[in-house]
Write a structure and sequence with these properties.
This protein is an all-alpha fold. Helices cover 70% and strands 0% of the residues. The relative contact order is 0.14.
Length: 80
C-alpha cells in the first residue's frame, strides 16, 4: 500500500468516525454503531503506524515497501 493510499484510507476512516460521533452525540446511534467507534480508532492507529514506518524507512534510505501493517494488538499497546 502506497502512502497516498494509506492517507486516503485514513481520510475515509476519519470521515466515518466523525459521522458516527455525530450520531452518538445526537442520540441516534445504534448499539452496533457505538461499537464500531472502537474498531475505527484501532484501524486508524494501525494506518498511522504503517505510514510512520514507511516514512521512517524512506528517511534512512530503505525501501518503504518493506513496512508491514502490525497487528492491532501490537499497535494498541504502544505508549504515547
Amino acid at each position: 500500500m502506497q502512502d497516498n493510499e494509506i492517507l486516503g484510507r485514513i481520510g475515509d476512516l476519519i470521515d466515518e468516525e466523525h459521522q458516527l460521533r455525530a450520531r452518538i452525540s445526537s442520540g441516534q446511534a445504534t448499539t452496533d454503531e457505538r461499537g464500531r467507534i472502537k474498531h475505527l480508532e484501532e484501524s486508524l492507529d494501525q494506518c498511522w503506524d504503517l505510514l510512520r514506518q514507511r516514512r521512517a524507512r524512506r528517511g534512512v534510505g530503505e525501501n518503504p515497501d518493506g513496512a508491514v501493517a502490525r497487528p492491532i494488538s501490537e499497535v494498541e499497546g504502544y505508549q504515547q
